[in-house]
Amino acid sequence: MRIDVVNNAEGYSEERLASLDGYIVRLSEAVLSGDYSSPQVTRSLKDAYATLTFVTSDEIREVNLEQREIDKETDCLSFPMLELKDGSFEMIPDSGDFETDEEGNQVLCFGDILINPFACEVQAESYGHSFEREAMFLIAHSLLHLLGYDHIDPTDEKIMSDKQKRLMRDIGLAFDDELEDICEMDNHRDNAGASEGLIPAGTPCKHCGTVALLGRPNVGKSTLLNYITGMKIAIVSHKPQTTRTNIRTIYNTEDTQIIFTDTPGIHKPTSKMGEFMVDRSYKAALGADCVVLIADGRFPDPGAVEKKLMALLKESGKKVILAINKYDEAGQEKLLPLTQKYSELYDFVDIVPLSAKTGRNVDLLLSVITKMLPEGPRLYDSEYMTDQTERVIAAELIREQVLHYTDQEIPHGTAVIINEFKEKNDDGEVTSDDDRTIAVIKADIICNRDSHKAIIIGRDGQMIKRIGTAARRNIEKMLGCKVYLDLYVKVRNDWQNNDAMLGSTGLGKDIDE
Predict the structure, then answer these.
(1) Above 70 in pLDDT, residue 211?
(2) How many structural domains does the chain have?
(3) Which residues touch 367 (CB under 8 Å, ≥6 apart)?
(4) Model-level pTM?
(5) Is residue 185 domain-shared with residue 275, that is, in the same domain?
(6) Beta-carbon neighbour count of residue 466 at 10 Å?
(7) Which domain holds residue 250?
């Protein structure tokens, strides 16, 4: 298969796109030489082509709106021209499907691929790998769509994911295990969504209730919620204590509504902020219809944190599900002994081993939770996925990039305060979210020391520029409009123990206390 490349991505580096040329040729060769299609299709590929067009963010949004009636910027789109399923023709091409090329040969067009390199760059930075790897991942993904592969149901998703991983290896851009997990999660996100049509709050619901997620820091609570919703609700970091407040995430089906609360990781508090975080976690558990205790499957025994939580839950008489996360990293042989040790300490309703990254057994966990929830009225409209305001999520998306880019240099002694959040359109007035064309956001990044401020700003302001650019693009995806983001870095010594500062960051005590 020949892949014809067109560059319509005005403003993007032509040199950067040219770095993909060799990989695109290898991709064509891999599809022809590997078992990615039936023999009949493979023969047809020898005299076939696909068009690969690099476009701007605005152009891909326009195509989404025109072709899919979705006003959204995406990273890629594919438009198959022939009817295939899993690499085989469902309908054999006839004479009307063939074109005559410049040399008079009969050729088949398998379809068109659109790639947004601006989104590629952001995602590459977010996942910590190269632009070339991210772009080729999207191109390979789209090419497989042209060959009839899809990820509509789990079986299709597994087939497509395996083919895609093999294609990346064939062209010399194999992912490591963690990035493969991200690939599988991205396929899930393509399919995620609520039930068809808006179901208003108050509508009778077969299963409706609240679920608190408890566990030690960095055990995977936020990753699990992001997987369930198919979008980023809670920020994720490899550093502990990323989540600071209770974030409610809403999972909807036609007859079920589950309101998850992602709580801060339970730890020994060393500041007023830490005390607040732990207190919030306990209150969320006591007020929930169901509790999911998440444990790390890589640890051979329950730790002091898990034992403390189980003792508290036993006193409250709460129904608890044990979810053993990351069990696939530990190995199946370690799962049974660990399960037995937990069962000796608590009478769990059920125990579910899972992987929050790949989504393995997440459907099983949702099924167990659903059965435990009572019948009642839907608490939120089915279109809602979180109770967090856009202002709060914007602050979290900024803080996420601070954590990402400063890595080990800056501890979790940073916070983000949104000082201004103004929405505008061409006429200057905004009447709804769909009406806005730009959001103007001004925010302060609070840190503890002058040395931290210097690191966040970086040499010649390069670090704060990276943080701002990545955060702005993520906020634009969330808001669906252009964003003007203005960041200031301020030092507030020992702000985690300052009541006034904690209040301004949303980390103060509850009003009713």
Answers:
(1) yes
(2) 3
(3) none
(4) 0.46
(5) no
(6) 15
(7) 204-377
